[in-house]
Amino acid sequence: MAGIQIERVTKRFGAVVAVRDLSLEIRDREFVTLLGPSGCGKTTLLRLIAGFMSPDEGVIRVGATTLSTPAGVVPPERRGMGMVFQNYAVWPHRTVYQNVAFGLEVRKVGRAETRARVARVLELVNLAGLERRYPSELSGGQQQRVALARSLVVEPGILLLDEPLSNLDAKLRERMRWELKELQRRTGITFVYVTHDQSEAMALSDRIAVLHEGEIMQLGAPRAVYTRPANKTVADFMGLVNLIPGRVIRAAGDDSLVAVGGEHPIAAALSQSAVGGQAVQVAIRPESLRLTPPAPTSTAVPLGTVPGKVADVTFLGNIIDCHVTLDDGTRVRVQVDSSQTLEVGQRVGVRFDSQQSSVFS
Predict the structure, then answer these.
(1) How far apart are CA 41 and CA 217, in angstroms?
(2) Do 283 and 170 share a structural domain?
(3) Cβ distance 318 to 255 under 8 Å?
(4) In the chain, what is the straight-line distance between the N-terminal and C-terminal CA atoms, in Å?
(5) String of b and e for 111-122 (b: at least 16 CB within 10 Å)?
(6) Number of structural domains found in the chain
(7) What gap in Å lies between CA 356 and CA 62, rounded to an integer?
(8) In whole angstroms, how far apart are CA 273 and each of 112, 190, 253, 270?
(9) Is there a single domain that holds both residue 131 and residue 217?
(10) What is the pLDDT along the chain (361 residues), one digit of tens a residue?
């Protein structure tokens, strides 16, 4: 099965543009996650790929085969794709075996081959031995695996998953993440996954497409999207981030300086269009900041360090989550090792790492 090519696709619902002039190429055997908040267009895009709706503009292809245009779509059952829904959609009156075998029966696959393929896929998703149980006799995670098995048994080249873990508790969701990634590695199927959960996207994906208002804000590997967000929208959505007001002191590309927390300079990389005096925002993750003892009053504050006072401390087991108020009143969130001793009211220096900071105008 070749990859998926989405070329300048737009989908409207009345006056609302759910997907706007969107292009995306998904490679064969790749795990790509469509990530974004509710209403960003990610489920609409998945349903366009599945063939449940036609685009108002643009083309969707798999390899050299055109599947969707405004003039018409190839029906979902003829696309060689499987789909797993958020609510599992397993039939309560059918056993595990009957749920999984249904797609093969519709395709009029022989009984012997059906038994063999169902047995193989149930082994793959760790449901062997549960063939005669009904959904009401299964846990949420087991029901989710039934839905996966039902999609996999027809041997799709592409598997589409619409927030399949959102109904599970936290511990089960974490275990299912690992199982999904292992399943994708073993089968070699192209996975297109929809979620609003950033940690889920980072744990599973080869690449993440962050959507906002029907457009892709950034496409890249999880580490790149997390550490080098393309804009404030991505930075703010991808986990915890400090957006700290600042002012350009020196505009010199990678050797620029930005003042934060008053007049304290930190090193930064700025675009060529930046100018001195320009108001900006510095984006940095709480875990990328460091706390140091305050500099003596007779000593200049080191470059990249901004003085402040600890405002709040929360022990979270493996880390300490604290808020520090900089001298100009800006509050930043810092996460440090749990062995560090901090007290409310304590003077500290907040150390910025230019390699972990992004600056937006």
Answers:
(1) 12
(2) no
(3) no
(4) 43
(5) eeebeebbeebb
(6) 2
(7) 38
(8) 68, 40, 9, 8
(9) yes
(10) 579 999 999 999 999 999 999 999 999 999 999 999 999 999 999 999 999 999 999 999 999 999 999 999 999 988 889 888 877 778 899 999 999 999 898 888 999 999 999 998 898 888 899 999 999 999 888 888 898 888 888 888 899 999 888 777 777 778 778 888 888 888 889 999 999 999 999 999 999 999 999 999 999 999 999 988 999 999 989 889 999 999 999 888 888 889 998 889 998 888 777 888 889 999 999 999 999 888 666 566 778 899 999 999 999 988 999 999 998 999 999 999 988 889 999 999 999 988 888 889 8
Structure tokens at 19: 């997907």
Residues 190, 116, single domain; the answer is: yes
Q: What CATH number is attached to the domain comprising 57?
A: 3.40.50.300
Length of the chain (residues): 361
Domain boundary among 189, 207, 236: 236
CA distances from 343 to 139, 286, 309 (A): 45, 18, 10
Does residue 10 contact residue 20 with C-beta atoms inside 8 Å? yes
CA distance 71 to 59: 10
Residue 231's contacts (CB-CB under 8 Å, 6 or more residues apart) are 217, 218, 360
Structural domain span for residue 18? 4-236
Whether residue 250 sits in one domain with residue 198: no
Planar angle of CA 218, 224, 228, nearest 5 degrees: 75
Side by side, the strands of the sheet bearing 264-268 are 264-268, 256-260, 242-250, 279-284, 358-360
Sign of CA dihedral 113, 114, 118, 119: negative
CA 221 to each of CA 191, 226, 356: distance values in angstroms, whole numbers, following the listed order: 15, 9, 16
Which tokens is 74 given?
A: 């190839």
CATH classification at residue 335: 2.40.50.140
Rg (CA), the chain: 25
CA–CA gap between residue 32 and residue 29 (Å, rounded): 10
